[in-house]
Amino acid sequence: MNEWVEVLFTYDEIEAEIVRDLLEAEGIQVVVQSLKISPYPVSIGRMGEIRLMVREEELEKAGEVLSVMEKGKETGDQ
Hints:
Layout: E1 4-10, H1 13-25, E2 30-34, E3 50-55, H2 59-76
Antiparallel strand pairs: 1-3, 2-3
């Protein structure tokens, strides 16, 4: 059961970095897949896609971390 599954899809590099840091802080191994070419800020179609992948056995824990993050965003916006 070592398969990688997508836990986040975004076009926002900052969001991807924040989520990656949060997941890694919880001991969850993360792989970032991106077709972005760093010197060029292109985010058209697939060139802008960023996918965060976690191991299938850590998907539930990662989902809990993301859920807490989303609740924090909602509470902070009021």
